[in-house]
Amino acid sequence: MTERAYTLLLHGIDTLQCAYYLRQDRREGFDFGQLLQSRESLRQLGTREGEALTLGGLPLLLHAHGTSSGYPFLLTGEEFRIECGEFNSPSFFVTFGSEALWRESALLLHEKFLQWARGVGFTPTKPERVSRVDFSFDYHLPVMDFELKGFVSGANKTSLHLENDCIQTFTIGQGDIVLRVYDKVAEIEQQSDKVWFFLLWGQDRDVWRIEWQVRKAVLREFGIVTVEDLRKCEGDLLRYLCAEHTTLRVPNGDGNGSRWPLHPLWQDVQARVGELVHLGVCRFDGKTAALEERLAQYAKSVYGYLKATAAVACVQQRKPLISEREALAQLQQRMWELHDPLHWRVEVEKRIAEVERGAW
């Protein structure tokens, strides 16, 4: 098969998830109290259909349940899946719809969400934080002429899914980076029902998707925190994904898979990615962002323990409430009782080494 047999039909972002830190300054069409009443009414009725609402001019469906990530409200619409809570931090977690992303782009949808949020009385308190991005490349592939062995990757886990004895999905990796190469037409017919892709492709068969799912930890390594960061740095990230993390090769007699020749399909993928803007510094600048992200997680955990310390102290001392300073003093006192200077130095140096090599 020649290189011409691999025709790129479409490429872009198929999934985008962002956390938004918003403060409600005024109530103009968005009332958490009213949402709670409506949700409880749905529960009492035992309905699974939800309640159709219009909030700030945006048609949404209020579901009768919260979300597994701890948000009490779930609102879904054509463009947004919104998880939110008055006392959650971040207060909004948004998944942008696949069809909307292909129609309007990630940047435009992000701005559209912020415009809607401002319209119903919310103000951002700090920039959004991107937590997941799925990049996809859809190819016309009349004949699938590669095998699982041809994927040379740093990932530890690979798998193969067959349907009626036909290969349907290759999966490489797990966790923060997952690469899937799969028969997109079969997936549409059997699962997603996204038949509108047929119009975008101009055909309805022989289309395979190459899709990377990338989560927060890796995004931060490349300096991707905000949607604007994503726009600037996606080229560097994709270059790493298709050239360093995983490649598709043609096995030969060489015992070292990294020396096998690149498969023509992967040559085309790398060429397409190479057309994106290349900044060349994101991976180095991103280390600071990744470390800041980890410190924020530690602070959140310690703050949770501080509140638990305050609660226990209140019960012990039979007080209705103590301040955060009093709770911190109690926690510090117990930490100093555990402190051993030599042990501290050994453990901190050990953790420094782990941070430097990314094993944290």
Give a short summary of the structure.
42% of the residues lie in helices and 27% in strands. The protein is built from eleven helices and 13 strands.
Describe the structure.
This protein is of the alpha+beta class. The chain folds into 3 domains: 3-14 and 133-280, no CATH class; 26-120, no CATH class; 286-356, no CATH class. 42% of the residues lie in helices and 27% in strands. The chain has helices spanning 32-45, 98-104, 106-119, 184-192, 196-201, 216-221, 227-245, 264-274, 282-317, 324-338, 341-356; strands at residues 7-24, 51-55, 58-62, 73-76, 80-84, 92-96, 122-140, 151-153, 158-163, 166-172, 177-183, 207-215, 246-248. The strands form 2 sheets. The chain has an 11-stranded antiparallel β-sheet with strand order 2-3-4-5-6-1-7-12-11-10-9. It has a two-stranded antiparallel sheet with strand order 8-13. Helix 2 packs across helix 3 (106-119), helix 7 (227-245) packs antiparallel against helix 8 (264-274) and helix 9 (282-317) crosses helix 10 (324-338). The longest helix is centred in the last third of the chain and has 36 residues, at 282-317. The radius of gyration is 25 Å and the shape is globular. The two termini are 44 Å apart.
Mean pLDDT: 88
Main beta-sheet annotation: 11 strands, antiparallel
Oligomer: single chain
Number of domains: 3
Helix segment tally = 11
Q: What is the helix/strand order?
A: EHEEEEEHHEEEEEHHEHHEHHHH
Shape: globular
Assign the structural class, choosing from mainly alpha, mainly beta, alpha/beta, alpha+beta, or little secondary structure.
alpha+beta
The share of residues in helices is: 40-55%
In order across it, which strands form the biggest sheet? 2-3-4-5-6-1-7-12-11-10-9
Distance between the termini: 44 Å
Strand content: 25-35%
State the total count of DSSP E strands.
13
- Give the low-confidence spans: 279-286
Q: Give the radius of gyration.
A: 25 Å
